[in-house]
């Protein structure tokens, strides 16, 4: 069987690490029971695979060019979900809101004013969804169609609970779960329009890591791998399982656009959700690939009793025939909701008969665009289009309301479950929800995944090359400047002081500017995985911190060793080790500051600008360049971690080795070296470490609250 556990060299190490994790006794007992259940499920799967493969080959013959999918061997979701949405209206600000601090202050001011006034002041808004109502039953595939800008993405993201716009009306699953409920979100599979994938991972790794993060801890590693193989089979991407995803960021081509889309769908299918919501899964695909994909969705809905809603741009007539229900939208209005096969008759009834031989999907898009068959100056998207108004009037006069839509009114009557409040578990959802991976597993997977994802990144190679070049250049320029004889003069001591400042400044520059990339680059992935409640933000934070440690250690230690030997700094083991420790903790503090700026802005351009300003300020006030700082700015050097690092290095390398000062000029040796603030090393270490902890805590807070507001 092709889904038997395979050797995957790249993931074996991780697996071993993950397998070794020890849990508590009670968890083990629970796991054992679950594992038994999972084994039975897998055996059943194996039986179904062979059955369905023979059916699939029959299907190939029957359908000619259409490749039949093997979705029937996917395990069935435990709780079928009926989706009901009633009178959904959504509003956006009528005007673009200028981002920035000033605007935020203005908004805060307005909020305070309105809190004290009886009138509720609301900024002018534009309504983008108008009373969207309908019911989707388990086993159905509903296609949301409409011209560009008609509100498809807005609506499907509302169904997925991933849209923060002001919305009225009701969206309920099984008449009780709101899509935004934290406990329920995991039941929803949502595939967004953009492919949010790690470009540096292979297809198998992408799905495997998602499996470990999403599937119950009771499943063994082999079972998770088998599940991944099943998904690869179902989606027809087994042949690219060891290819990298690829993309612009890593500068490598990988799998095709259609394959990427299927990997994204696979990530959602892995945990076998009852509801799958897809935003334009067929865009960019050729018609046959698109047909195959819709065919797979259709199978998944029918075989597994899943509820599937997908937006679709311009389906071919063959795809259209495969849809169960059509939800047609035009400028945010619901134009039709019901059996896709009944749409043509309905539009003919209200005076919009489809011309003979036309693809119904094309015709409905024309109708929804307010197209009357003649070209207009403003194209087909005129606001207040008279044709669209006429259509809406005709629909209002003779609505296509089936009996089940009346049920939505009932759904409206249900009190919506408040977020965070325990659900009345009428459909057994809670019993169906097994324990996810442990915190330690989450951290390990995110950490290993980050290290693997970055294996293609050029900037690592570039930055190592830059550091080695600069270290050798320093060694040449200050060659043997640190030997005892050179230190016999104030000038010689000053030279070494300058080198030590350069060492601290250069090393921390390098790490700070490398680390500001971390979070802006992973922002979309973090938001996606956070939305799916895959792990707490702290697991991501600790894992990313761990993943950075090898590089953050290797670069400074390597460069400092080269410089130390070439310059001939203090030749004792103690001094060498202390110098390394000072450089490393200063670099960690700089990296923490870089992470903080990246996490606070989550926007590379702005983070880079902020980093340049902060870094230059810290450098100028670090004590080397300016000694007579204006009184009102004299607090600044105390914020410069560079000044503490440099101070510590001066102490280690020069204390007691420079010539004695003439009477009355006790500070002469440090004349060009700022002011040595402490006679011992402890306070410098303490302050740098404290700064590091504060910056890291800031990173955590920024990720926790910042990510939500940076969509
Ligand atoms: N956050 C927002 N702020 C302002 N306007 C918005 C916002 N979200 C959606 N809109 C507006 O709502 C309307 C519907 O947008 P939506 O993206 O849902 O359309 P769509 O049918 O998915 O379009 P397309 O097929 O081109 O993706 C558009 O006019 C869009 O400009």
From TrEMBL:
Annotated ranges, domain ABC transporter: 112-356
Keyword Transmembrane helix: yes
Main location: membrane
Gene3D superfamilies, sorted: P-loop containing nucleotide triphosphate hydrolases
Keyword Amino-acid biosynthesis among record annotations: no
Topology term for the membrane: Multi-pass membrane protein
GO cellular component, one term: membrane
Chain intervals with Basic and acidic residues compositional bias: 1-10
InterPro entries referenced in this protein's UniProt entry, alphabetically: AAA+_ATPase, ABC2_TM, ABC_transporter-like_ATP-bd, ABC_transporter-like_CS, ABCG_dom, ABCG_transporters, P-loop_NTPase
Annotated PANTHER family: ABC TRANSPORTER G FAMILY (PTHR48041:SF125), ABC TRANSPORTER G FAMILY MEMBER 28 (PTHR48041)
The protein's name in its UniProt record: G-family ABC transporter
Organism: Chloropicon primus
């Amino acid at each position: 069987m092709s889904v038997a556990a395979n050797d995957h060299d790249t993931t074996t190490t991780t697996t071993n690490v993950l397998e070794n994790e020890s849990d508590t006794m009670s968890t083990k007992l629970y796991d054992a029971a679950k594992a038994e259940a999972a084994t039975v499920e897998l055996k059943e799967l194996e039986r179904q695979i062979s059955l369905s493969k023979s059916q699939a080959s029959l299907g190939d013959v029957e359908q000619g060019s259409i490749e039949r999918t093997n979705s029937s061997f996917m395990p069935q979701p435990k709780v079928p979900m009926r989706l009901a949405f009633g009178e959904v209206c959504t509003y956006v600000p009528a005007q673009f809101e200028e981002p920035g601090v000033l605007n935020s202050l203005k908004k805060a001011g307005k909020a305070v004013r309105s809190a004290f006034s009886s009138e509720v002041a609301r900024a002018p808004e534009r309504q983008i969804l108008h009373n969207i109502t309908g019911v989707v039953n388990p086993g159905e595939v509903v296609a949301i169609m409409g011209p560009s800008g008609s509100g498809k993405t807005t609506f499907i993201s509302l169904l997925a609970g991933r849209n923060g716009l002001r919305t009225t009306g009701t969206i309920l699953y099984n008449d009780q779960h709101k899509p935004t409920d934290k406990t329920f979100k995991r039941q929803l599979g949502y595939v967004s329009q953009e492919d949010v994938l790690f470009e540096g991972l292979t297809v198998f790794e992408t799905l495997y890591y998602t499996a470990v993060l999403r599937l119950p801890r009771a499943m063994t590693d082999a079972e998770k791998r088998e599940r991944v193989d099943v998904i690869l089979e179902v989606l027809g991407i087994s042949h690219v399982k060891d290819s990298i995803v690829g993309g612009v960021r890593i500068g490598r081509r990988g799998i095709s656009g259609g394959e990427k889309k299927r990997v994204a769908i696979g990530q959602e299918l892995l945990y076998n959700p009852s509801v799958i919501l897809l935003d334009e899964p067929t865009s960019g695909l050729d018609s046959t690939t698109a047909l195959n994909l819709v065919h797979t969705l259709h199978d998944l809905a029918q075989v597994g009793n899943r509820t599937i809603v997908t937006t679709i741009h311009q389906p071919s007539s063959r795809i259209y025939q495969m849809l169960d229900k059509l939800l047609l939208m035009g400028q945010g209005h619901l134009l039709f909701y019901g059996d896709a096969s009944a749409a043509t008759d309905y539009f003919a009834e209200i005076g919009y008969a489809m011309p003979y031989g036309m693809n119904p999907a094309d015709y409905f898009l024309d109708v929804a665009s307010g197209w009357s068959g003649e070209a207009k100056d403003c194209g087909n998207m005129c606001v207040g289009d008279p044709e669209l108004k006429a259509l809406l009037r005709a629909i209002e006069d003779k609505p296509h309301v089936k009996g089940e839509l009346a049920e939505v009114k009932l759904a409206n009557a249900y009190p919506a479950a408040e977020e965070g409040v325990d659900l009345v578990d009428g459909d057994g959802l809670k019993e169906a929800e097994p324990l996810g991976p442990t915190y330690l597993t989450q951290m390990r997977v995110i950490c290993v995944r980050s290290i693997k994802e970055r294996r293609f990144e050029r900037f690592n190679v570039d930055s190592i090359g830059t550091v080695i070049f600069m270290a050798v250049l320093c060694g040449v320029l200050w060659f043997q400047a640190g030997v005892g004889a050179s230190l016999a003069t104030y000038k010689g001591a000053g030279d070494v002081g300058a080198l030590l400042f350069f060492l601290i400044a250069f090393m921390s520059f390098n790490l700070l500017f490398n680390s500001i990339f971390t979070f802006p680059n992973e922002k979309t992935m973090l938001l996606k995985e956070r939305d799916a409640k895959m792990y707490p933000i702290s697991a991501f934070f600790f894992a990313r911190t761990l993943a950075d440690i090898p590089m953050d250690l290797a670069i400074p230690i390597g460069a400092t060793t080269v410089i130390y030997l070439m310059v001939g700094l203090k030749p004792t083991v103690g001094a060498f080790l202390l110098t390394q420790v000072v450089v490393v903790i200063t670099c960690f503090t700089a990296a923490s500051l870089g992470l903080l700026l990246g996490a606070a802005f989550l926007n590379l351009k702005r983070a880079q600008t902020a980093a340049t300003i902060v870094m230059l300020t810290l450098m100028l006030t670090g004590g080397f360049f300016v000694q007579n700082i204006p009184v009102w700015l004299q607090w600044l050097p105390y914020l410069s971690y560079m000044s503490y690092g440099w101070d510590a290095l001066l102490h280690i390398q020069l204390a007691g080795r420079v010539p004695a000062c003439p009477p009355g000029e006790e500070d002469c040796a440090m004349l060009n070296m700022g002011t040595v603030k402490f006679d011992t090393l402890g306070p410098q270490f303490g302050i740098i470490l404290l700064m590091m902890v504060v910056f890291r805590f800031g990173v955590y807070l920024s990720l926790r609250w910042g990510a939500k507001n940076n969509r």
